[in-house]
Design brief:
By secondary structure, this protein is mainly β. It is 9% helix and 47% strand. The termini are far apart.
Length: 108
């Protein structure tokens, strides 16, 4: 079942799950080393905050709810179209989601 940006914010703030990149700009094989592995996910301002097990942080700005697809198993992020910032462009990252009940939580 598709979820909203509000639900993603709520879930990220609760720190109930981790994510792992499974697709990078349409390619499932050529994921850069720095994006590999499970990351804790939180919400800060209007950005998703990703925290690796070594404590390194990265962020993804979410400017509009149309630029995500989110459900219980997958989070997909999209670029916006240059002349229409609310419309989906290219899919840039796809994350697999792992819920807290199924994992040993990484302290960050």
């Amino acid at each position: 079942m598709k979820k909203t940006l509000s639900q993603l914010k709520k879930d990220a703030k609760s720190k109930e799950f981790q994510v792992k990149v499974i697709e990078f700009y349409g390619d499932k094989e050529a994921i850069p080393d720095k994006l590999q592995g499970w990351r804790n996910l939180s919400w800060q301002g209007n950005r998703l905050k990703f925290i690796r097990s070594d404590g390194a942080e990265s962020y993804e700005q979410i400017n509009h709810s149309n630029l995500i697809d989110y459900d219980d198993n997958i989070l997909s992020l999209y670029n916006s179209l240059p002349n229409s910032p609310k419309e989906k462009g290219q899919k840039i990252l796809v994350y697999e989601i792992r819920r807290r009940a199924k994992l040993a939580w990484i302290q960050a």
